[in-house]
From TrEMBL:
<keyword id="KW-0560">Oxidoreductase</keyword>
<dbReference type="GO" id="GO:0046381">
    <property type="term" value="P:CMP-N-acetylneuraminate metabolic process"/>
</dbReference>
<dbReference type="Pfam" id="PF13483">
    <property type="entry name" value="Lactamase_B_3"/>
</dbReference>
<comment type="function">
    <text>Sialic acids are components of carbohydrate chains of glycoconjugates and are involved in cell-cell recognition and cell-pathogen interactions. Catalyzes the conversion of CMP-N-acetylneuraminic acid (CMP-Neu5Ac) into its hydroxylated derivative CMP-N-glycolylneuraminic acid (CMP-Neu5Gc), a sialic acid abundantly expressed at the surface of many cells.</text>
</comment>
<dbReference type="InterPro" id="IPR037339">
    <property type="entry name" value="CMP-Neu5Ac_hydroxylase_Rieske"/>
</dbReference>
<dbReference type="InterPro" id="IPR017941">
    <property type="entry name" value="Rieske_2Fe-2S"/>
</dbReference>
<keyword id="KW-0479">Metal-binding</keyword>
<keyword id="KW-0963">Cytoplasm</keyword>
<feature type="domain" description="Rieske">
    <location>
        <begin position="14"/>
        <end position="112"/>
    </location>
</feature>
<dbReference type="GO" id="GO:0005737">
    <property type="term" value="C:cytoplasm"/>
</dbReference>
<comment type="similarity">
    <text>Belongs to the CMP-Neu5Ac hydroxylase family.</text>
</comment>
<dbReference type="GO" id="GO:0051537">
    <property type="term" value="F:2 iron, 2 sulfur cluster binding"/>
</dbReference>
<keyword id="KW-0411">Iron-sulfur</keyword>
<dbReference type="GO" id="GO:0006054">
    <property type="term" value="P:N-acetylneuraminate metabolic process"/>
</dbReference>
<protein>
    <recommendedName>
        <fullName>Cytidine monophosphate-N-acetylneuraminic acid hydroxylase</fullName>
        <ecNumber>1.14.18.2</ecNumber>
    </recommendedName>
</protein>
<dbReference type="InterPro" id="IPR027033">
    <property type="entry name" value="Cnh"/>
</dbReference>
<keyword id="KW-0408">Iron</keyword>
Length: 590
């Protein structure tokens, strides 16, 4: 049983001799009994300390040989860099801070490293697990990250994406959902939507649901960027959206409660959930990079998480410099392996009774994305499950659409043949055709919009976006399907230092990015004030950058911090009419 009081944990003790031998700058230490690593930074008499764990994906830091001042360390996973003298990450620049530990000296000049642990929120009002009847708790996999949970006489659904694409037109469902998916959604007592990405918040799916049950209760976490920030514009009529605070039990009935937790790396948008029924916990970490900052309940009945990788435009959509096909293929291979090991380690640490890899079942099935489909390989759930079985006695479940896990049976006897009921023989598992046309028509409609008859849309849009005072010059090029310049499309520069639109690159030193984007998608995004995840995660861009650095502030702004209301194009067009036609050719490609 957990404590609901704050605790102080001693992570490392140094003897007076070890303290006297601390060198100026960076010192690495390992606690031999726990195997955990720490970094101490000494500057004259001042000491700072942190765990030797990268905030991104838990990698280990080593000395950064490029740093002659001896203040920074480099992560062995993705080359993130941390300045230990300030506890700020310097690659990506201006991004995250490292959590610090408390340094205490004892009376003999020995040293203690302490961590102040807040109580675990799920330990408040703890419940002992009761025995479950067979059939009382059943979890049915529908597609991707969508699970249908029967919990006593209540039904709960996670992240329903069951029709249409995600990320503009880049992602399509790998699995064929059970034919009764809409009935299942309509029968749900509550739906949890983890975050705003369109493979979890699927407006085409919700539109079908709202047509039948607009008042269905939907629960989301209280993220800085609201999950449903774009509801009004979507035209989907949902009337019962509930935003709940993090880390507090939400009581559904006497046996059922749930708690939403935030992500440690993307707290502004990502969440995960613990569902508890009669004392049995189901943990769904969804897409979180560091769910709840890495503090999670152990020994839950069932844990599910993402596993596949490939949910980013990096590195397939990059070219120039080191980004050769060989380099990209090797990077992807290594990256997927790291992710697999990271997930296996997480499962080993948390020791759930049952683990299910999900939320990675998408495919780049549109013919124009054949290159991405062939190069953006995903992890195989069976491979992860084999890795887990090798290292622990956790039971694993590779879900197929329509398959149902009976929690009561599995907890009682994991070998029970009725513990997991597979879909009937002959059920279609993988999709082999997708209804592209209606969704591509919506994107295409933006191409001929009258906004784009006036080249001043560029200034209007980037002024609305509100990103400036940052030394970066970006060249934006509208392209056809194959990323060649779109005839009559726009090709222009944006200088984000003063938000100007120069004819050529400025004389001063500046980082430079070239972003080619399919014209239908960029115009749809501009017109509707959508986030650039549609472009980047949806593989709708091709990028080159010089120098090769990730501009966290720029991408983070366009992917998560754009204004909540779209640009006011109506008043823009009125203004254009008053000023005469004024269709300038200056930004157009021939």
């Amino acid at each position: 049983m957990g404590s609901t009081e704050q605790t102080t944990e001693i992570l490392l003790c140094l003897s007076p001799v070890e303290v006297a031998n601390l060198k100026e700058g960076i010192n690495f230490f390992r606690n031999k009994s726990t195997g955990k690593d720490y970094i101490l930074y000494k500057s004259k008499s001042r000491l700072r300390a942190c765990k030797n764990v990268c905030k991104h994906q838990g990698g280990l830091f080593i000395k950064d040989i490029e740093d002659l001042a001896g203040r920074s360390v480099r992560c062995t996973k993705h080359n993130w860099k941390l300045d230990v003298s300030t506890m700020k990450y310097i690659n990506p620049p201006e991004s995250f801070c490292q959590d610090e530990l408390v340094v205490e000296m004892d009376e003999n000049n020995g040293l203690l490293l302490l961590e102040l642990n807040p109580p675990n929120p799920w330990d408040s009002e703890p419940r002992s697990p009761e025995e479950l009847d067979f059939g009382e708790v059943q979890i049915t996999y529908l597609t991707h990250a969508c699970m249908d949970l029967k919990l006593g006489d209540k039904r709960m659904v996670f992240d329903p994406w069951l029709i249409g694409p995600a990320f503009a037109r880049g992602w399509w469902l790998l699995h064929e959902p059970p034919s009764d998916w809409l009935e299942r959604l309509c029968q749900a007592d509550l739906i949890y939507i983890s975050h705003l990405h369109s493979d979890h918040l699927s407006y085409p799916t919700l539109k079908k649901l709202a047509g039948r049950r607009p008042d269905i209760p939907i629960y989301v976490g209280n993220t800085e960027r609201p999950v449903f920030w774009n509801l009004n514009q979507s035209g989907v009529q949902l009337t019962n959206i509930n935003v709940v605070p993090f880390g507090i039990w939400q009581q559904v009935d006497k046996n059922l409660r749930f708690m939403i937790l935030m992500d440690g790396v993307h707290p502004e948008m990502d969440t995960c959930i613990i569902v508890e029924y009669k004392g049995h916990k189901i943990l769904n970490t969804v897409d979180c990079t560091r769910p709840n900052g890495g503090r999670l309940p152990t020994k839950v009945a069932l844990m599910m998480s993402d596993f596949a990788g490939g949910a980013s435009g990096f590195p397939m959509t990059f070219s120039g410099g080191k980004f050769t096909e060989e380099w990209k293929a090797q990077f992807i291979k290594t990256e997927r392996k790291k992710l697999l090991n990271y997930k296996a380690q997480l499962v080993k640490n948390l020791q759930p009774r049952i683990y299910c890899p999900f939320a990675g079942y998408f495919v780049e099935s549109h013919p124009s994305d054949k290159y991405i489909k062939e190069t953006n390989t995903k992890n195989d759930p069976k491979e992860l499950n084999n890795l887990i079985k090798k290292n622990s006695d956790v039971i694993t479940w590779t879900p197929r659409p329509g398959a149902t896990l009976d929690l009561g049976r599995m907890l009682k006897d994991p070998t029970d043949s009725k513990g997991i009921i597979e879909p009937p023989e002959g059920t279609k598992i993988y999709k082999d055709s997708w209804d592209f046309e209606p969704y591509l028509e919506i994107l295409n409609a933006a191409v001929g919009d009258e906004i784009f008859l006036h080249s001043s849309w560029i200034k209007e849009y980037f002024t609305w976006a509100g990103f400036k005072d940052y030394n970066l010059v970006v060249r934006m090029i509208e392209t056809d399907e194959d990323f060649n310049p779109f005839p009559g499309g726009y090709d222009y520069l944006v200088d984000f230092l003063d938000l100007s639109f120069p004819k050529e690159r400025p004389q001063r030193e500046h980082p430079y990015e070239e972003i080619r984007t399919r014209v239908d998608v960029i115009r749809h995004v501009v017109k509707n004030g959508l986030l650039w995840d549609e472009l980047y995660i949806g593989f709708q861009t091709r990028l080159q950058r010089d120098p090769d650095i990730y501009h966290h502030l720029f991408w983070n702004h366009f992917q998560i911090k754009l204004p909540l209301t779209p640009p006011n194009w109506r008043s823009f067009l009125t203004c254009c009419e008053q000023n005469g036609p004024g269709i300038s050719q200056e930004c157009k490609t021939t």
